[in-house]
Queue: 2 jobs
Job 1
Amino acid sequence: MVNLILFGPPGSGKGTQAAKLIERYGLVHISTGDLFRYEMGNNTPLGLEAKSYMEKGQLVPDSVTIGMLRNKVEAHPEANGFIFDGFPRTLPQAEALDALLAEKNTSVSGLIALQVEDEEIVKRILLRGQNSGRPDDNDESIIRKRIAVYKQETSPVFDYYAQNGHSHSIPGVGTIDQIFDRLCQIIDAI
Ligand code: ADP
C-alpha cells in the first residue's frame, strides 16, 4: 500500500494535485475539508458542528475529525492506498493516523509539502472565493487566521514525519503540470 499525505498551507493546491495523483497512482483521495463541506451541505449534526469552526478559520476538534477520517478509511477496505489531503492537521491527528494504519498493517509512506508564500496564498484563496461559494474563502481576515493556524498547529506535523525521514517538500508555484511532475518524482522514489 502507498499512503501519502499531501501537505501545505490552505490554498497551496493540494486538492488540484490530489485529483491528478489519484488518476496516476490509483489511490483513494480523502479530503477532510471536502467531507466537512459535504456534511454541511446536508445539514447533518456533524456538518453543523464543523461549520461553527470552519467559518471562523479554526480547526474542527480532533475527536470529531479523527472519527470521521476513520469511518472514511474503513469504508474502503479494497484500497491500494490513500492520499490524505488536509489531514493530519495536528500532532494528535498524526498519531491517530499512524495508529489507524498500523491496525491495518500499513503506514504512512511519505508526506509531501507544497510550499507557497503567504501573500500568494491570500491572492489565490480570494480568487477561488469568487467561484467556490466557500464563505471561508471570501474574507481576508479569516484567510490570514487559517494561515496562522497552519503555522502554529499544522506545521509541527511536517517535523513529526521528518523524524523518520518521511517528509519532503517542493515548490508549490509554477504550472499545475510542473508541480505534478515534481510530486511524481518524489512519489516514484518512495
Ligand atoms: P484549505 O486547505 O483551503 O483551508 P480545506 O478544505 O482543507 O481547505 O479545509 C477547510 C476547513 O475545514 C479548515 O479551515 C478547517 O476548519 C476544517 N478542516 C479541514 N480538515 C481539518 C482537519 N484535519 N482538522 C481540523 N479541521 C479541519
Note: The CA atoms of residues 88 and 94 lie 5 Å apart.
Job 2
Amino acid sequence: MPSIDYTLLNRQLEALLDTRDWLTNSAQTCAFIQQEIADLNWVGFYLQRQPEMLGLGPFQGKPACHPIPFSKGVCGAAARQQRTQRVDDVHAVADHIACDAESRSELVIPIIIDGYLWGVLDLDSPLPARFTLNDQVGIEALVATFQRQTDLH
Ligand code: SME
C-alpha cells in the first residue's frame, strides 16, 4: 500500500474547512477522508448529544448503528477512555458493534473540548490491520485540524 502524505492532506483539509460551522465542517471532513484514504468502507462522526450516549452524525458509507452508549463497542471505549482506539481485528473484540459485517479493522479518535467528550470520528476498513501507527498519527492530525477550524463550544 503506498504511504499517504498526511502533511499534504492536512493542508488540503485546512483549506477545505473554510466555515466555522460544525455541521458543514464535519460533513466535509468525512467526504474528504473517504475520497483521499484508500480501503475504507465507512467514515463518520458520532456526537455526544445526550449524556454518555453517542448519536450518529455526518458520515460516508452504509446506514449505521444509532445510538451507541459509552458502555458499548469500540466507539464507546474511545468515548469512555478519551483515547484513540486502533483495532486490527474487530472480530477479536468481544463487544464490537458490527454495523457492517464487512468491517475488519477500525480506528476511533475522540474529540475532546476542555475535557468534555464532544464526539468521535470512526473509520472502518474491510481489510484487517488497515490502520498503522503512522495512519493513526496522520488521522489524529486531521482531527486536530477539524477542531482548530470549527467552533465546537
Ligand atoms: N463498530 C463500531 C460501531 C460503529 S460502526 O462501525 C459505524 C463500534 O464497535 O463502536
Note: The chain has one domain: 6-149.
